[in-house]
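Request: Show me your protein:
***
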Amino acid sequence: MKKYFSQLRPVERRWVIGVGVLLVLVLNWAYIWPHFSDFSNDKNRLEAANDKLAKYRKAIDEMPSLQTKIKKYENEGEFVAPEDQAIDLMRTIQSQAAASGFGIQSFSPTRMSTNQFFVEQIQNINVLAPEPNLVDFLFKLGTSSSMIRVRDLSLQPDPPRQRLTADIRLVASYQKNPKTSSSKTTTAKAK
């Protein structure tokens, strides 16, 4: 190659060097320059991965405290047998309505839904009551230990405008089965 280069005239040498430089620039432009941002992209990906790892480690560190809270909530409140939950809900609603000084006009059939920890009994009721009695009823339901809450409430005055007609959807949360979850924990610790 050196022998060939030395046989060229000065103008030809300049052309060969110019074409070589141009070829190197074109190759750099095509293959190297597009990858200049790779370092910053990799750096950003590394930071994102470290952030995710820190979040996971924090969540893992919180596991013992979360498990103690779960056990605390599992043992809190009273256990009502699944077959008695709908009856317990009706009994609680009727006793609170009687204590507030009005009767319930109609009940709809109780529905049930479940999640990981609770069985929810959903009861729709229709009442006709004076405003203070209805407010007292809702307040007593919220402050009692019964885990009953109002999910939906629609109010309308009755035709003489002396009382309120209310359609109320009440939801009661009952423990699924506290003994099963504690026995699973005991079995997991034994292993």
